[in-house]
Amino acid sequence: TVADTGWAKAVWGKIYGQWICGSAVFIYDYDKFIPSGLLDVIAKYKITTFCAPPTIYRFFIKEDLTKYDLSSLKDCSIAGEPLNPEVYFQFLRATGLKLREIYGQTEMTVTIGNFVGMEPKPGSMGKPAPGYEVALYREDGSVCDVGEEGQIGVGAGTRKPVGMFVGYYRDEKLTRKVWHDDIYFTGDMAWKDEDGYYWFDRWIFQAHLEK
């Protein structure tokens, strides 16, 4: 997982989650991102899973990927920003791997994703993770219909889902602003299609359909 230690994903994305699964963790410390250098490391040390923002994959597909033995890779995922379907399809053609986009925040880890066993929709953040009660909300607090844009909210009920934050440190006012009516309001806007997949942008959805 390519994540700086200033982000919570550096903890739950490449330490705790992997330890819970009993997985090995490969550490590659570099001062400057060089696409060819990172690809060399993946090939040399037979990395099996890889997660990075779309920006890194955009640099990858500019390289001649036929020069690298990436056959050890089993799953590649994306987080941090919406995925352009063109990057998805170019990486698929070069490696045979379908990139799995995921959505989460420091406050709640991975909440929506294209998980193993699902068919990824290029450009979609996927479906809610097990254990998370996700819905889209209008400004008046009512739940959005299919195809209608709204704010992503995570229901808590009587107990918060495992992995979610309790509140903002020494900031009860901000905590109450995002946590109310037993719902955590993420501040992120999205819409849901008829298959239950969540999307940030409609132009990405249209690009997916055109492919």
What features would you describe in this structure?
This protein is an alpha+beta fold and 211 residues long. The protein has 7 helices and 10 strands. The longest helix is centred in the middle third of the chain and has 11 residues. It is globular.
Question: How would you concisely characterize the structure shown here?
Answer:
The chain has 211 residues and is of the alpha+beta class.
The global form is globular
Write down the secondary-structure element order: HHHEHEHEEEEEHEEEH
Question: Over the alpha carbons, how many angstroms does the gyration radius reach?
Answer: 18 Å
Unreliable stretches covering 5 or more consecutive residues: none
First and last CA, distance: 28 Å
Helix count, DSSP H or I runs of 4 or more residues? 7
Report the major sheet. 5 strands, mixed
Strand content: 15-25%
Q: Mean pLDDT score, rounded? A: 91
**Helix content percent band:** 25-40%
Would you report the number of β strands?
Answer: 10
* Content-based structural category: alpha+beta
Widest sheet: strand ordering:
1-2-3-4-5
Descriptive tags:
211 residues, alpha+beta, five-stranded antiparallel sheet, 26% helix
